[in-house]
Amino acid sequence: MATRPARRGAQRGLALLGLLAVIVMVFAWILTSRLNAANSHVALDREHNAKVLSRAKAALIGYMAQRAAMAGENNPGSLPCPEAPADFNVPGAEGTANGNCSLPAVGRLPWRTIGVEKLVDAAGEPLWYIVSPGWAFSGAQTVINPDSVGQLTIDGTANAAVALIIAPGPVVAVPAVAGCTAWAQARPASGAPDKRNYLECGNATNSFVSSSANASFNDQILRVTVADIMPALEAAIQERAQREIAPALRNAAFALDSNSPRRWVSSTSNAPIYPYAVQFDTSPGASNFRGDVGIYQGLLPMAAVAGFVDFYEAPGDAVKTTSAGGIDSQSCYWESSTVYACEGVYREDGVDPSLPISLRMTATFTDVAMGLRSRIVSKLTAEARNNGDPTWSTASVSVSRRLEMNDGSVWNKPHGSVTAQIDVTLPNIDAMGWGTIAEFRIRMDRDVVSDHCLLATTSTVCPSGGPDTSWFARNLWHRNFYYAVAQQNTPNVLPGTGGCDSTNCLRFNDDTIRNTRVLLVLAGRALAGQTRPSATFSNYLEYQNMDGGTFYEQRRPRVDRVANVGLNAPWNDRLVIVDWITPNPTFPLAYVQ
């Protein structure tokens, strides 16, 4: 009987242990519930931020594309700078992009500029934004094309993005860890913002991170890559090239009359003659962009006159073309490397002093048909003066100028060269009251053949009265356009008038219709499997467009392959129709389905 109290004590101990177990279980449940709730809130916050960041990214790309398609936009593809620091929280001004910025630039997203409302993250903070060097205006114009790369380093990877959009999250105390200085974030409501109060250590410097083992890191980041931007930019450039570059190229065609040799005139009813293409035998970045005789498909012939077009040989002396009067003496010389001049003394006719004296001078310039050229006949000049007078004058000097494109049938006039001729009627010495002799000077300037305005990299309307097309060459877009011309619309037809027809023009989209004299193919950024730079067509053009034939297609852009057949292969070629015959193409161009 003495053992009963001991049993009761043991039972009480077991009850206490059971109660303790229940308490522990309840505490664990409460803790787990709270942790789950916290995690749920974090997940909801991140989901909210992801949606807001995606909206901002879409608006940013849309703004870029809309600007790129605008006439007069000289930096197509450039992104806005972040919000001007002075506009921080200023009603009616906040969210406006700074006019220029030092790159990489870090600041608040210019939401007002890109056309959205003030987007905020789950903590109620406006989004932040970082833009890469080379992708925003920093005082110097940008150079952006499909070969451009983003220059932001993210998580140690170089060239990883062109921009970052960041949800900064709530205020945190940043501890001192390796490579990071301690910082207690505070967010004043006015004054220029300090990025350290919004972005954690890695993102407050110029090497950016998307995550960190540091528990205080709460930046949520969305990258904007070249792959994100380029499809929209290429679509804008295609539309703009159709509107601006195609007319400029039509203006660059040689207008040749029906004479033999055919004269290069200001206008003609004959079919236009376009320069030869550049042989695609090296990567576009290494090309000299000089057209090659007999090449009808390749790169645009964008080589400048300087260093390419030249005198075939030193021009001959000025010669008399009338029987009246005579040349007593003349001296010809190189005034400069591009100007050849002849000066001489002429005399009146001994039988009839009232008769005029006429002279002619010619010069042949090589490789004219191998590039985009303009004619400036005023560069052929003639002047006269009384014997011993120090001043030259064009008064009473009558001139006639012409340019002839050569077919190569004459040995000293190569195929595609141009012979310039100036005919001069000098002032009648008797009528001028000068005496019996006078002096003349005739100048042959190579710049009678000049660069077409499409080659300009500084602000230039092209053609006269047209838009500013300098963005095209300055941004090196010509390296990404493939040029195709019908053979019958090149100097190959000389001395005939040429002009392709329904049997030999180029074709696009419908292989039964031959109605295209000239077209361009915009080769977008390199797709999977393509390697650049390269001297191989297939690394730039897709499927039908890379076979060297006369049929070209525009398919709906796609970056992946859904089946191992051509129509479903990756595709980002875009067509620009430059010149055509009937039936006229319909714009915008349709896609091959």
Would you write up a description of this structure?
Helix 1 (4-68) runs parallel beside helix 3. The mean pLDDT is 91. Helices cover 18% and strands 21% of the residues. Strand 3 and strand 4 form a beta hairpin. It has 593 residues and is α+β, with helices and mostly antiparallel strands. The chain folds into 3 domains: 42-224, no CATH class; 230-259 and 269-303 and 454-580, no CATH class; 319-451, no CATH class. The strands form 8 sheets. Strands 9-17-18-14-11 form a 5-stranded antiparallel β-sheet, with no helix packed on it. It has a 4-stranded antiparallel β-sheet with strand order 1-2-5-8. Strands 10-21-23-25 form a 4-stranded antiparallel β-sheet, covered by helices on one side. It has 5 helices and 25 strands.
Topology of this protein?
Elements: H1 4-68, E1 105-108, H2 111-114, E2 128-131, E3 152-154, E4 157-161, E5 163-167, E6 173-174, E7 183-184, E8 220-224, H3 226-252, E9 262-264, E10 297-299, E11 319-320, E12 326-336, E13 339-347, E14 358-365, E15 373-375, E16 380-386, E17 398-405, E18 418-425, H4 429-432, E19 437-445, E20 449-451, H5 470-474, E21 481-485, E22 507-508, E23 516-522, E24 551-552, E25 574-580
Helix pairs in contact: 1-3
